[in-house]
Amino acid sequence: MELELAKNKNYRFFYKHFEKLNKRCRTILILHFDKKKWDVIAKAIGTTSQPFVWKLTSECKAELVKSISDDPDYPELKKIYNELTEEL
């Protein structure tokens, strides 16, 4: 039960930061996390350039990671989650 609560809290934490991204980054990352091919992502954002899609995907992921890691609640959430998963 505790693990499910921790997962839920972590999901809400992630989503809070995901929602801070601009619409283009959210679109790119949703498609990327769904393992869509680069051409599908390119079409969704109005480009045909594979290198541009890769660049934007990398930048959006980096922005999300930075937002999460800069949050003062991150270290505690990470610690709790790690402790609970180690018990399994």
Helix content: over 70%
Based on DSSP secondary structure assignment, what is the total number of beta strands?
0
Structural class: mainly alpha
Q: Could you give the order of the helices and strands?
A: HHHHH
* Individual helix count: 5
Shape from CA axes? Answer: elongated
Q: What Rg, in angstroms, do the CA atoms define?
A: 16 Å
Largest sheet: none
What is the straight-line distance between the termini?
A: 12 Å
What portion of the residues fall into strands of 2 or more residues? Answer: under 5%
Low-confidence stretches: none
**Mean pLDDT value:** 92
Structural account:
- The chain has 5 helices and no strands.
- The chain is mainly α.
- α1 (about 1-20) runs antiparallel to α5, α2 crosses α4 and α3 crosses α4 (about 50-70).
- It starts with a helix and ends with a helix.
Secondary-structure blueprint:
Elements: H1 2-20, H2 23-33, H3 38-45, H4 50-70, H5 74-86
Helix pairs in contact: 1-5, 2-3, 2-4, 3-4
